[in-house]
Design the sequence.
């Protein structure tokens, strides 16, 4: 039976999704060069969808393309990462404000269940997945628009540094994260959305302040 050709756009998106997953999982660290020919051979495809996939990831801030040189996984310095967190401090409370009035009691209890899993886990990779799941459960009823796309990009581009910091901090700082999560969930349960916004802003700010104390995390 003859094989069915996959449309170029579909193939490009599939490759972009695969590369994004590798970057977020830490398999491709910041500063890693992505060789198009090698990737096309590995994925059994032509260079065209690979090239388009890299452009997709460039638009999301995960890949840096240099004319006549190639592609690299985007890296950040301390200042760039700090700025990303400052932007998150302002944008994510807006997402919360849009979503919080629509959260049901069941939604909030589901968040508490995720937080139970966060407190029980000891693996950094599992923590990163669950932490992101908890935050986006808070934002799940946001209105359509560019804001969630912007915030997702900020989460993606800082993932490597959150992972490195989580490994460095270990259990010493985990109790603070858990306490802030519990305070946030309780404020939502109490329908005190103003306090929830302030707790979230403080939660993000504290991580930013801690991160910039460790410039060694940004050496590539």
Sequence:
């Amino acid at each position: 039976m003859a094989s069915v050709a996959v449309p170029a756009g579909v193939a490009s998106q599939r490759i972009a999704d695969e590369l994004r997953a590798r970057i977020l999982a830490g398999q491709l660290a910041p500063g890693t060069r992505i060789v198009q020919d090698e990737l096309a051979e590995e994925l059994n495809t032509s260079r065209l969808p690979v090239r388009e996939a890299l452009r997709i990831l460039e638009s999301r801030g995960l890949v840096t393309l240099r004319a006549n040189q190639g592609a690299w996984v985007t890296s950040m310095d301390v200042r760039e990462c700090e700025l990303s967190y400052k932007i998150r401090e302002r944008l994510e409370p807006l997402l919360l404000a849009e979503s919080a009035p629509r959260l049901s009691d069941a939604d909030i209890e589901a968040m508490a269940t995720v937080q139970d899993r966060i407190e029980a886990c000891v693996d950094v990779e599992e923590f990163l997945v669950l932490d992101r799941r908890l935050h986006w459960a808070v934002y799940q009823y946001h209105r359509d628009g560019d804001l969630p796309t912007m915030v997702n990009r900020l989460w993606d581009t800082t993932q490597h540094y959150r992972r490195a910091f989580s490994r460095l901090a270990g259990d010493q700082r985990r109790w603070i994260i858990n306490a802030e999560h519990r305070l946030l969930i309780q404020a939502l349960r109490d329908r005190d959305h103003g306090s929830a916004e302030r707790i979230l802003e403080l939660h993000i700010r504290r991580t930013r302040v801690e991160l910039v104390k460790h410039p060694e995390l940004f050496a590539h």
